[in-house]
């Protein structure tokens, strides 16, 4: 694992400064217990490095492969009262860290979402997100979400998207218009699509003058390649993780940079909402 440091929140650091832990996670396909154990180890490691927020990839608790898992996503899905979320809630509280966890999520109204659970450092569930833009065969197994709204954490508003969502500028723009200065995107990208992976995060960061991260899985038949990305509000990459290996990047960002960049390049101020019809 390697660590990058830019600037701070725990231990007296300023409220605008947040330490992130981005996990390139290698899931064991359909082995929920093994993935939970490994995920909790990463939570402990991130806490030891002083992280305020740890983010895992898309569907990391089951692994990502619709061809292999298929309908079993419904069997493996859990709601927020299930053992997986309870284990990570306890870990968040014990290790004083916020968590974004990608998993198959049972919906209250029935069905299953390709989802993320957002847990604050007190162990409370701050919210859940259901992937809005489903990719290819995901439509056979998951219900699409229809809400893009940030989550309130102790450092401010956090935006969450999942994988293919990042290819739709409207999704990130909607979050930025609601005040999110940091958007994280749990993902499961295959090496064949790396050209899109390399473009999404700098583009979304630049046009919304905010920090945007892509957090990718590793391994499996789909050849997930890791290579986590984090772009700053100028659209500059400040993290580009190793290829094809499980890893975790830990670094500090200052969310005030988003305000400074938006003054210099006021995309959000000058957006013609009357023309484009954004309703955030």
TrEMBL record:
Residues 18-255 form the CN hydrolase domain. Coiled coil: none annotated. SUPFAM superfamilies: Carbon-nitrogen hydrolase. It comes from the Bacteria. One of its GO terms (molecular function) is hydrolase activity, acting on carbon-nitrogen (but not peptide) bonds, in linear amides. PROSITE patterns: CN_HYDROLASE. Keywords: Hydrolase. It holds the Pfam family CN_hydrolase. InterPro entries: Aliph_Amidase/BUP, C-N_Hydrolase, C-N_Hydrolase_sf. This is CN hydrolase domain-containing protein.
